[in-house]
Amino acid sequence: MRDAVRSTVLNTALALSRSASQTDPSAQSTESSEPVASSSSVNDLAGCGGDVWAALDKLAGDTVALQSDSTVTVNAEVAAYFSEPLIPVKQDPLAWWKANEYRFPFLAQLAQVNLGPPPSSVQSERVFSIAGEVYDDRRSRLLPQNAEKLVFLKFNLPLLNFKY
Q: What gap in Å lies between CA 46 and CA 54, rounded to an integer?
């Protein structure tokens, strides 16, 4: 299960880093300025024998190297995050991310998206509706702990693909 979560986080962070490097003009200018300057020099073109296609192939190879560098960065960030100790249950995860966003920049962007409040109250209304069905006059001897467990199971068993 932990490996599946790690894989999902890694894939999402890689997609985020690729989209950020494609849409952020400052990231493009800093990353692409180095290969363009080095590949456009006279020595590099001479090393390609004056062939324009060989020079373009070399430039494309430099771009692939830059993409693999960002992949390595994201991989290292995800590995460092998963090696961190778990925070206590009573600690605020938003405060933790605020304190550690400089260490995990790609994952902090994912946390902003995923730790925000839901855009509507539909889920909470569903919970209250199910709780109203569980607390019925015919179940007058149902303990509150058991009713809470029944509501929890109603919503979480389908997430585990439990066949009932």
A: 10
User: The tokens 């966003």 sit on which residue?
Assistant: 101
Task: Give residue 17's identity as a one-letter amino acid code.
Answer: S
* In the chain, where the domains are located: 2-114, 122-160
Could you give the CA distance from residue 120 to residue 150 in angstroms, rounded to a whole number?
24
Residue 86, both tokens: 């778990």
Question: Dihedral (C-alpha) 120, 122, 123, 126: value to the nearest 10 degrees?
Answer: 160
6 within 8 A of 103, measured Cβ to Cβ: no
Residues of the chain with confidence (pLDDT) below 50: 26-46, 63-66
pLDDT of residue 69: 64
Reference 79, options 158, 3, 156, 162; nearest CA is 3
Q: What pLDDT sits at residue 44?
A: 46
Q: Which residue carries 């209250």 as its tokens?
A: 128
C-alpha closest to that of 113 among 12, 23, 17? 12
Q: What are phi and psi of 104, to 5 degrees?
A: -130, 70
- Nearest Cα to 14, choosing from 69, 84, 71, 59? 71
